[in-house]
Amino acid sequence: MGDIFNSERIILREMERKDWKDVHQYASQDKVCQYQPWGPNSEQESKDFVEQVILDAEKDHRSRFVFAIILKEHGEMIGSGEINLRDSTNRVGEIAYIINPKYWKMGFATEVANLLISYGFKQLKLHRIFATCDPRNIGSLRVLEKVGMMKEGRIREHILIKDGWRDSLLYSVLEQEWNGN
Ligand SMILES: CC(C)(COP(=O)(O)OP(=O)(O)OC[C@H]1O[C@@H](n2cnc3c(N)ncnc32)[C@H](O)[C@@H]1OP(=O)(O)O)[C@@H](O)C(=O)NCCC(=O)NCCS
Fold first, then answer.
1. pLDDT score at 160
2. Residue 150: inside a domain, yes or no?
3. Rounded Cα gap, residues 118 and 178, in angstroms
4. Cα 41 to averaged position of ligand 1 atoms, centre (Å)
5. What's the domain count of the chain?
Protein backbone atom coordinates (compact mmCIF):
# COMPACT_ATOMS: atom_id res chain seq x y z
CA MET A 1 0.00 0.00 0.00
CA GLY A 2 0.96 3.63 -0.44
CA ASP A 3 3.25 3.05 -3.38
CA ILE A 4 4.64 6.12 -5.13
CA PHE A 5 7.14 6.06 -7.96
CA ASN A 6 8.21 8.43 -10.67
CA SER A 7 10.11 9.12 -13.87
CA GLU A 8 11.34 12.25 -15.58
CA ARG A 9 8.03 14.13 -15.94
CA ILE A 10 5.45 12.16 -13.94
CA ILE A 11 4.65 10.66 -10.57
CA LEU A 12 2.49 7.57 -10.13
CA ARG A 13 0.70 7.46 -6.79
CA GLU A 14 -2.20 5.47 -5.32
CA MET A 15 -5.58 6.77 -6.41
CA GLU A 16 -7.51 8.81 -3.83
CA ARG A 17 -11.25 9.54 -3.43
CA LYS A 18 -10.84 13.15 -4.58
CA ASP A 19 -9.40 12.00 -7.92
CA TRP A 20 -12.86 11.20 -9.28
CA LYS A 21 -13.18 14.74 -10.70
CA ASP A 22 -10.00 14.41 -12.72
CA VAL A 23 -10.98 10.90 -13.79
CA HIS A 24 -14.30 12.31 -14.95
CA GLN A 25 -12.55 14.95 -17.08
CA TYR A 26 -11.38 12.22 -19.43
CA ALA A 27 -13.67 9.25 -18.73
CA SER A 28 -16.71 11.33 -19.79
CA GLN A 29 -15.31 11.82 -23.31
CA ASP A 30 -16.35 9.59 -26.22
CA LYS A 31 -12.91 9.47 -27.80
CA VAL A 32 -11.34 8.15 -24.60
CA CYS A 33 -13.64 5.13 -24.30
CA GLN A 34 -14.20 4.53 -28.00
CA TYR A 35 -12.49 1.11 -27.87
CA GLN A 36 -13.59 0.20 -24.32
CA PRO A 37 -16.63 -1.67 -22.97
CA TRP A 38 -17.36 1.19 -20.51
CA GLY A 39 -18.25 4.86 -20.79
CA PRO A 40 -18.63 7.65 -21.53
CA ASN A 41 -19.05 7.95 -17.77
CA SER A 42 -21.69 9.82 -15.82
CA GLU A 43 -20.35 11.60 -12.70
CA GLN A 44 -21.70 8.73 -10.61
CA GLU A 45 -19.86 6.18 -12.75
CA SER A 46 -16.57 8.05 -12.32
CA LYS A 47 -17.14 8.17 -8.54
CA ASP A 48 -18.01 4.45 -8.49
CA PHE A 49 -14.85 3.65 -10.46
CA VAL A 50 -12.64 5.40 -7.89
CA GLU A 51 -14.52 3.78 -4.97
CA GLN A 52 -13.94 0.34 -6.52
CA VAL A 53 -10.24 1.10 -7.07
CA ILE A 54 -9.91 2.02 -3.36
CA LEU A 55 -11.80 -1.12 -2.23
CA ASP A 56 -9.59 -3.29 -4.45
CA ALA A 57 -6.45 -1.63 -3.04
CA GLU A 58 -7.52 -2.54 0.51
CA LYS A 59 -8.00 -6.25 -0.18
CA ASP A 60 -5.83 -8.72 1.78
CA HIS A 61 -4.50 -10.41 -1.32
CA ARG A 62 -4.28 -7.38 -3.52
CA SER A 63 -4.26 -8.08 -7.25
CA ARG A 64 -5.21 -4.66 -8.66
CA PHE A 65 -2.88 -1.66 -8.58
CA VAL A 66 -4.32 1.53 -10.05
CA PHE A 67 -2.20 4.68 -10.01
CA ALA A 68 -3.05 8.31 -10.66
CA ILE A 69 -0.63 9.93 -13.12
CA ILE A 70 0.54 13.29 -11.78
CA LEU A 71 2.49 15.85 -13.80
CA LYS A 72 5.55 16.90 -11.83
CA GLU A 73 5.49 20.33 -13.40
CA HIS A 74 2.16 21.56 -11.97
CA GLY A 75 0.70 18.66 -10.00
CA GLU A 76 -2.18 18.02 -12.38
CA MET A 77 -3.70 14.52 -12.53
CA ILE A 78 -3.61 13.62 -16.23
CA GLY A 79 -4.71 9.99 -16.31
CA SER A 80 -4.39 6.59 -14.72
CA GLY A 81 -2.23 3.52 -15.13
CA GLU A 82 -3.08 0.07 -13.89
CA ILE A 83 -1.38 -3.27 -13.38
CA ASN A 84 -3.38 -6.38 -12.51
CA LEU A 85 -2.09 -9.68 -11.24
CA ARG A 86 -3.82 -12.20 -13.53
CA ASP A 87 -2.14 -15.45 -12.47
CA SER A 88 -0.13 -15.59 -9.25
CA THR A 89 1.08 -19.18 -9.78
CA ASN A 90 2.74 -18.28 -13.06
CA ARG A 91 3.45 -14.65 -12.09
CA VAL A 92 1.53 -13.03 -14.94
CA GLY A 93 0.32 -9.41 -14.93
CA GLU A 94 -1.53 -7.11 -17.30
CA ILE A 95 -1.06 -3.36 -17.81
CA ALA A 96 -3.44 -0.65 -19.06
CA TYR A 97 -3.39 3.16 -19.15
CA ILE A 98 -5.51 6.19 -20.02
CA ILE A 99 -4.33 9.75 -20.65
CA ASN A 100 -6.47 12.90 -20.69
CA PRO A 101 -6.76 13.94 -24.40
CA LYS A 102 -5.30 17.37 -23.50
CA TYR A 103 -1.99 15.53 -23.12
CA TRP A 104 -2.11 13.02 -25.97
CA LYS A 105 0.92 12.52 -28.24
CA MET A 106 3.39 13.96 -25.75
CA GLY A 107 4.95 10.64 -24.75
CA PHE A 108 3.18 10.34 -21.40
CA ALA A 109 1.58 6.92 -22.00
CA THR A 110 4.96 5.54 -23.04
CA GLU A 111 6.47 6.87 -19.79
CA VAL A 112 3.61 5.34 -17.77
CA ALA A 113 3.85 1.95 -19.49
CA ASN A 114 7.57 1.83 -18.70
CA LEU A 115 6.93 2.60 -15.03
CA LEU A 116 4.16 -0.01 -14.77
CA ILE A 117 6.30 -2.72 -16.36
CA SER A 118 9.21 -1.89 -14.11
CA TYR A 119 6.88 -2.01 -11.06
CA GLY A 120 5.52 -5.37 -12.25
CA PHE A 121 8.94 -6.99 -12.57
CA LYS A 122 10.68 -5.35 -9.59
CA GLN A 123 7.94 -4.98 -6.94
CA LEU A 124 5.45 -7.67 -7.94
CA LYS A 125 8.18 -10.08 -9.11
CA LEU A 126 6.26 -11.00 -12.24
CA HIS A 127 7.61 -13.22 -14.99
CA ARG A 128 5.35 -12.15 -17.85
CA ILE A 129 3.48 -8.89 -18.43
CA PHE A 130 0.93 -8.56 -21.21
CA ALA A 131 -1.41 -5.93 -22.62
CA THR A 132 -4.18 -6.01 -25.17
CA CYS A 133 -5.53 -3.29 -27.42
CA ASP A 134 -8.03 -2.77 -30.18
CA PRO A 135 -6.26 -3.10 -33.57
CA ARG A 136 -7.73 0.33 -34.51
CA ASN A 137 -6.17 1.95 -31.43
CA ILE A 138 -2.98 3.10 -33.16
CA GLY A 139 -1.82 5.25 -30.21
CA SER A 140 -1.99 2.33 -27.80
CA LEU A 141 -0.27 -0.21 -30.04
CA ARG A 142 2.49 2.32 -30.71
CA VAL A 143 3.00 2.68 -26.94
CA LEU A 144 3.28 -1.10 -26.51
CA GLU A 145 5.79 -1.34 -29.36
CA LYS A 146 7.82 1.62 -28.08
CA VAL A 147 8.29 0.04 -24.64
CA GLY A 148 9.59 -3.11 -26.31
CA MET A 149 6.65 -5.46 -25.95
CA MET A 150 6.35 -8.19 -28.56
CA LYS A 151 3.20 -8.75 -30.59
CA GLU A 152 2.01 -12.31 -29.99
CA GLY A 153 -1.08 -12.29 -32.14
CA ARG A 154 -4.69 -11.36 -32.46
CA ILE A 155 -7.44 -12.52 -30.11
CA ARG A 156 -10.65 -12.81 -32.10
CA GLU A 157 -13.87 -11.26 -30.71
CA HIS A 158 -12.17 -10.78 -27.36
CA ILE A 159 -14.36 -8.07 -25.79
CA LEU A 160 -17.93 -6.89 -26.31
CA ILE A 161 -17.85 -3.09 -26.71
CA LYS A 162 -20.51 -0.56 -27.66
CA ASP A 163 -20.41 -1.25 -31.40
CA GLY A 164 -20.13 -5.06 -31.16
CA TRP A 165 -17.47 -7.72 -30.63
CA ARG A 166 -13.92 -6.38 -30.71
CA ASP A 167 -10.72 -8.20 -31.65
CA SER A 168 -7.60 -7.46 -29.57
CA LEU A 169 -3.91 -7.45 -30.36
CA LEU A 170 -1.92 -9.22 -27.66
CA TYR A 171 1.52 -7.92 -26.62
CA SER A 172 3.90 -9.15 -23.93
CA VAL A 173 7.31 -8.73 -22.33
CA LEU A 174 9.18 -11.28 -20.21
CA GLU A 175 11.26 -10.76 -17.09
CA GLN A 176 14.57 -11.67 -18.79
CA GLU A 177 13.86 -9.35 -21.74
CA TRP A 178 13.17 -6.42 -19.44
CA ASN A 179 16.22 -6.98 -17.29
CA GLY A 180 18.28 -6.75 -20.44
CA ASN A 181 16.92 -3.23 -21.07
C1 LIG B 1 -3.66 5.34 -26.29
C2 LIG B 1 -3.20 6.49 -25.39
C3 LIG B 1 -2.99 5.97 -23.98
C4 LIG B 1 -1.88 7.05 -25.95
O5 LIG B 1 -1.40 8.04 -25.04
P6 LIG B 1 -0.29 9.10 -25.45
O7 LIG B 1 0.23 9.68 -24.18
O8 LIG B 1 -0.82 10.01 -26.47
O9 LIG B 1 0.84 8.17 -26.09
P10 LIG B 1 2.35 8.60 -26.42
O11 LIG B 1 2.41 10.09 -26.54
O12 LIG B 1 3.27 7.93 -25.48
O13 LIG B 1 2.48 8.02 -27.88
C14 LIG B 1 3.25 6.91 -28.31
C15 LIG B 1 3.33 6.93 -29.81
O16 LIG B 1 2.03 6.77 -30.40
C17 LIG B 1 1.72 7.88 -31.23
N18 LIG B 1 0.30 8.16 -31.08
C19 LIG B 1 -0.37 8.45 -29.94
N20 LIG B 1 -1.66 8.61 -30.21
C21 LIG B 1 -1.82 8.40 -31.54
C22 LIG B 1 -2.94 8.42 -32.42
N23 LIG B 1 -4.16 8.68 -31.96
N24 LIG B 1 -2.73 8.16 -33.72
C25 LIG B 1 -1.50 7.89 -34.19
N26 LIG B 1 -0.39 7.85 -33.40
C27 LIG B 1 -0.56 8.11 -32.09
C28 LIG B 1 2.60 9.02 -30.71
O29 LIG B 1 2.79 10.00 -31.68
C30 LIG B 1 3.87 8.25 -30.36
O31 LIG B 1 4.57 7.89 -31.52
P32 LIG B 1 6.02 8.48 -31.84
O33 LIG B 1 6.82 8.32 -30.60
O34 LIG B 1 6.45 7.64 -32.96
O35 LIG B 1 5.78 9.90 -32.16
C36 LIG B 1 -4.25 7.63 -25.37
O37 LIG B 1 -4.60 7.95 -26.68
C38 LIG B 1 -5.50 7.27 -24.58
O39 LIG B 1 -5.57 7.48 -23.39
N40 LIG B 1 -6.52 6.70 -25.26
C41 LIG B 1 -7.75 6.33 -24.63
C42 LIG B 1 -7.61 5.16 -23.69
C43 LIG B 1 -6.95 3.97 -24.33
O44 LIG B 1 -7.24 3.64 -25.47
N45 LIG B 1 -6.06 3.33 -23.58
C46 LIG B 1 -5.34 2.17 -24.03
C47 LIG B 1 -6.16 0.97 -23.82
S48 LIG B 1 -5.42 -0.44 -24.63
1. 95
2. no
3. 8
4. 21
5. 1
Q: Is residue 15 in a domain?
A: yes
CATH value at residue 73: 3.40.630.30
- 173 lies in a domain? no
Averaged confidence pLDDT in the chain: 96
**CA-proximal residue: ligand 1, atom 22 (nearest):** 139
What domain range is 14 assigned to? 4-128
List, for residues 131-158, the tens digit of each pLDDT value: 999 999 999 999 999 999 999 999 999 9
pLDDT digits (tens, 9 = 90+) for 37-64: 999 999 999 999 999 999 999 999 999 9
Protein residues with CB under 6 Å of any ligand 1 atom: 32, 35, 96-99, 104-110, 133, 137-140, 142-143, 146
Residue of 143, 162, 169, 171 to test ligand 1 pocket, by largest number of atoms within 8 Å of CB: 143
Whether residue 44 is contained in a domain is answered as yes
Give alpha helix (H) positions in the chain. 20-27, 30-33, 43-57, 108-122, 138-146, 175-179
User: In whole angstroms, what is the distance from residue 141 CA to residue 153 CA?
Assistant: 12
